[in-house]
Amino acid sequence: MDIDKLLWLYKTMVRSRYMEEALLNLYRQGKVPGTLHLSIGQEATEVGVIAAMQKGDLLLATYRSHCPALAIGIHPKYIISEVLGKASGVCGGIGGSMHLSEPQLGLIFTSAIVASQIPVAAGIGYALRYLKRDNVVVVFVGDGGVNNGDFHEGLNFAAILNAPVVVVIVNNQYAISMPVHKSTKVKDLATKAIAYGIEGIIVDGMNPIEVYTKAKEAIEKVRSNKTPILIEAKTYRFLGHYAGDVDQPYRSKEEVEEWKKRDPILYLRNIIKEKGFESKILEIEAEAEKEIADAVEFALNSPYPEESKMFENLW
Amino acid sequence: MDIDKLLWLYKTMVRSRYMEEALLNLYRQGKVPGTLHLSIGQEATEVGVIAAMQKGDLLLATYRSHCPALAIGIHPKYIISEVLGKASGVCGGIGGSMHLSEPQLGLIFTSAIVASQIPVAAGIGYALRYLKRDNVVVVFVGDGGVNNGDFHEGLNFAAILNAPVVVVIVNNQYAISMPVHKSTKVKDLATKAIAYGIEGIIVDGMNPIEVYTKAKEAIEKVRSNKTPILIEAKTYRFLGHYAGDVDQPYRSKEEVEEWKKRDPILYLRNIIKEKGFESKILEIEAEAEKEIADAVEFALNSPYPEESKMFENLW
Amino acid sequence: MVKMGRIVTFASALNEALYEEMERDERVILLGEDIGVFGGVYKVTKGLLEKFGPSRVIDTPISEEGIIGTAIGMAIMGLKPVAEIMYPDFLPVCMNQLVNNAVKIKYMSNGKVSSPIVVRTCIIQGRGSGATHSQVLIPIFMHIPGFQVIAPSNPYDAKGLLKSAIRSERVTLFFENVVLYQKKGEIPDGEYTIPIGSAEIKRKGKDVTITCFSSTVDIVLNAALKLEKEGIECEVIDLRTLWPLDEKTIIESVKKTGRIVTVENSWGVCGVGSEIITRVCEKAIDYLLAPPVRISPPHIPEPASPALVKKYVLSEDKVIDGIKKVIEYG
Amino acid sequence: MVKMGRIVTFASALNEALYEEMERDERVILLGEDIGVFGGVYKVTKGLLEKFGPSRVIDTPISEEGIIGTAIGMAIMGLKPVAEIMYPDFLPVCMNQLVNNAVKIKYMSNGKVSSPIVVRTCIIQGRGSGATHSQVLIPIFMHIPGFQVIAPSNPYDAKGLLKSAIRSERVTLFFENVVLYQKKGEIPDGEYTIPIGSAEIKRKGKDVTITCFSSTVDIVLNAALKLEKEGIECEVIDLRTLWPLDEKTIIESVKKTGRIVTVENSWGVCGVGSEIITRVCEKAIDYLLAPPVRISPPHIPEPASPALVKKYVLSEDKVIDGIKKVIEYG
Ligand SMILES: Cc1ncc(C[n+]2csc(CCOP(=O)(O)OP(=O)(O)O)c2C)c(N)n1
Ligand SMILES: Cc1ncc(C[n+]2csc(CCOP(=O)(O)OP(=O)(O)O)c2C)c(N)n1
Ligand SMILES: [Mg+2]
Ligand SMILES: [Mg+2]
């Protein structure tokens, strides 16, 4: 893989990590309204997949999407502002942390109703084909979302409509407290592809290079074949389900530590370093630090939306 | 298979066929309110599976359930009365053709909302195990129901709850006008079992002996293992989706004729005849004819329910 | 007044509306169960597959969440999907896509993304199919903000309102009614649309205001005709659009008549009538000469037996009784 | 009056109710997302898995139709399932099982089969989580016949009503409220239950009747306290059970005060207030001294921004304004 791509992956993961750490900080200071779901630990999956998308490709994701939003190109200042409910947020503070949209950059929306984005992706995929656009739609869903009826109906629709949809299961091993192996009797979630007559792929979701490479292959295949593919990325969230989930009674500290050894950022950092680009790394890190500090500043200083705004856009 | 079983299968299929022909007649005379879904052609599947159930085993089925209701032991006069909305109906005329219940005989209910009976079956199965009853619950669903979210959630629940549930897909090739091969990209619906980590079996739904034998095996396996099994019975409905579906623009007359050659009643009749029991056959047919004629008479002469009845049993 | 031309049935008026809008705009796409080869269980979409092909008339599996979710995705991309959910009883099956996606996406995205879908569905109340094939459920979609709810009573309105709905930027629930499909009425030869949100006074009268919609309109008009002979002059308002509600027309009428009777085919509790009566009492209580009266089916599921169905559904007699109650009050 | 004993929070009152009912009756089984190992997202079910084991406290996948369907199956077999649907926003996800199975099976089977389930859910309105994590939706379940709808406002009622619901033969929707979980109140040491369907007059007054429930009760009581100083005596009715509605208590109160203000956290259109006001006008309009007033959040989804949330949700000020309106009318 060329160094530019590696650096982009690294930079994006670092920016996301710093942004989410800053969000967590804000949360702890009581400045975040509502709830907060962080991707820390899963960045390889989210960034790797998005890196494999082409211009015009579209994305649907979940409430855990600050990282995908950043990766697809939304500036952190607009993401943080949205989380804080500021007028400068990507959705004017109306959507909030779980509901991000920036269609011009490819992010259609993020859904806080588990799995409900999948049938929508089927429709978007159908429209892409109908409008003769040579693009695909990528849709993220958690391991917990797989057991929901909307997953089933959405995948089946995508398959029979020949819709260019890439469904990515971000299998971070838990749905809040429910371990994936208790939510289904299937060992690999990618197996579920068989039920829809489509291809299923497993990727190491802690390895950004593997995610990128395999996602790229899958996305291009979907682009040309107009048949959905299901990707299962095996990954892990290092923090609680939401920022308030501190005790995490459903998993052991050891397990968490074990997975943390596979931190995708450290992993990629080493690879790039070995290739002799340490200075680039330091540059990226310093820039990201500044960028996020500025973004937090921007968000904190932004005004809240006017009352009249809440009466707009109902229809 | 012993002759008594064969005769029971034959008798039950014949009784059902005559009953449904009588219902169709009543429909054509404008005496059936609402709609009417007939099993004619599919009797081997429905009767074969029910023959394999033991005392105390339970059944959930669909709006197309006059045949299952009869097979499980409800007298045709109560079925016909229910279809006509008479007080003597199995549900007092309140349920109607699509909503039949007779829990004492094992029929929990028939559902007119496609696939919604499957999660209910998971709960019943769980309760059977919890109550330490050595019984299973059998649930019928059409090929069209397989694509519904409730199928997905219900099968997964049954699997992870170790519920003794036997899910029988009555694959009659069409969901109203939708051919099964257009509703999914999977060749055999039994394949879907893989997605739930359970066993899937295909049976020839036109052959009552095969259905009975394989269903029996599956039911006993589920009884001892407390793990659901998915059975796909490949069958065909000879008539329209409902009684009013006469033109059937979605399939060719040739296709229908082809399948009619495999009429399960004729098939079993020949086998029994070859075994030298023709007189028994004639006896069964004569009895059934009389039984159904009497049942129609009974239903037609029964009174409608009192107005006050409709205010009962809301809760 | 629009120049009328032809007599058509309610079902064919709808078919024409779909046909014309599909011809006019390539982005209009139909999807639903049995709408293509079968032409719809009541033949409303008949011939459209043959004319517009399978990429625009999509037969779907029995996956209501899938249908609405897919329609939303299409709409987001600028297509104009018209989804069919066979009966309102199946709206609960796709309630999540309707409530949490269809009417939330535009709001939550601050207007960046929108999903203007049309959902057609056919009320089959009173047909003997029992409790799961008879529900109306309209008030639910008035309660939840973001739905435009339409329930026409005649071919002219059906065609004009469906065309408006397809062109609208809002999420529309369009309630048809099996009782009306064969009803005939006059429609113009040429193109026309009807503004969404406006009720129509079907009959002027000074004694009592009666609101109704869908299949209840004819029942009320017949009742009004009978009462005319007894000297009672009913003002009959066909709401046509349930949401946004044409409050102005209703309130003005009540200010004139001093009496209000609401008639609906859905249940009364938290229903259309309770909303209308509340508005009347909030804004014109001093004009009321008698307590308001709500007429609706009893608050129970619909029984299957034809003998009971007759008692369950609205009848002219029930409407007449209700009207007399407000008139005789004083 | 019941002898009081201990001060507990709303959340622990619920936990006690579940604990006691599970101990009392082996057939009581809990199921839902994250209720076991996690003890519930707000810890209402904490400790129950440890005490009663995984066969009675079942952590489920994210399959709301699956949860309700499974609960229905259990109930049919004589078990007493208490299902948790995390937030009311997810009730649309399982609306089909609720509407078409839970409240239809007994009716359609002519009483041969019944499925008395309890569904607990927690309103998280006003917390900044946006439009899909803030809905109340109570009026929907009043509209559809067959649900018993409960929304307590304090620990005492919460415990007593949940116990009654679990013992009831009806399908219950039990609305908790995150705003109330840490609220403290006195409860008796011993066993008690509260009859479902009875409202409670929290405060006597002669000038105006105010209905409220769940989190709105404290807001109204605070408003009433302030208005007392201005010489306005409010009669505050905590509905407690939304359906069946305790019409008698409301009507009697209005006959005394001559004024009605309804307060609710769900939307107003076809809402709780519209049902109550309609009944008041149907049965006691001649007693009214002023037009009725409905107070509810605006008819839009809930925005996320805390600045807007504040404007969106009910406040004491809005309640006071509403009350003054009816008082000042004359
Ligand atoms: C339909 C629905 N049910 C329940 C919830 C509450 N909930 C939010 S996130 C979550 C767990 C999701 O787990 P998973 O799909 O694995 O995604 P992850 O959070 O691990 O990224 C649950 C149960 C919801 N948002 N939507
Ligand atoms: C949820 C739902 N959607 C739609 C329908 C309308 N409908 C009734 S039967 C049917 C076709 C069912 O096909 P299948 O499952 O194959 O069963 P079959 O009728 O062939 O026995 C449809 C679409 C319904 N009853 N429920
Ligand atoms: Mg997960
Ligand atoms: Mg079929």
Give a verbal description of the structure.
- The complex is a heterotetramer, with 2 copies of chain A (315 residues) and 2 copies of chain C (330 residues).
- By secondary structure, chain A is an alpha/beta fold.
- Chain A has one domain: 3-Layer(aba) Sandwich (Rossmann fold), CATH 3.40.50.
- Chain A contains 11 helices and 8 strands.
- In chain A, the strands form 2 sheets. Chain A has a 6-stranded parallel beta sheet, with helices on both faces. Chain A has a two-stranded antiparallel ribbon with strand order 5-6.
- In chain A, strand 5 and strand 6 form a beta hairpin.
- The model of chain A has no long low-confidence stretch (mean pLDDT 98).
- Chain C is an alpha/beta fold and 330 residues long.
- Chain C has 2 domains: 6-187, Rossmann fold, CATH 3.40.50; 200-328, Rossmann fold (3-Layer(aba) Sandwich).
- In chain C, the strands form 3 sheets. In chain C, strands 3-2-4-5-7-6-12 form a 7-stranded mixed beta sheet, sandwiched between helices. A 5-stranded mixed beta sheet of chain C has the order 9-11-10-13-14, with helices on both faces. A two-stranded antiparallel ribbon of chain C has the order 1-8.
- Chain C is globular, with a radius of gyration of 20 Å.
- In chain C, helix 3 packs parallel to helix 4, helix 8 packs across helix 12 (316-328) and helix 9 (247-257) crosses helix 10.
- In chain C, helix 8 (216-229) links the parallel strand 10 (208-212) and strand 11 (234-238).
- Chain C is built from 12 helices and 14 strands.
- Chains C and D meet through helix 4, helix 6 and helix 10 of C and helix 4, helix 6 and helix 10 of D.
- The structure holds thiamine diphosphate (2 copies) and magnesium ion (2 copies).
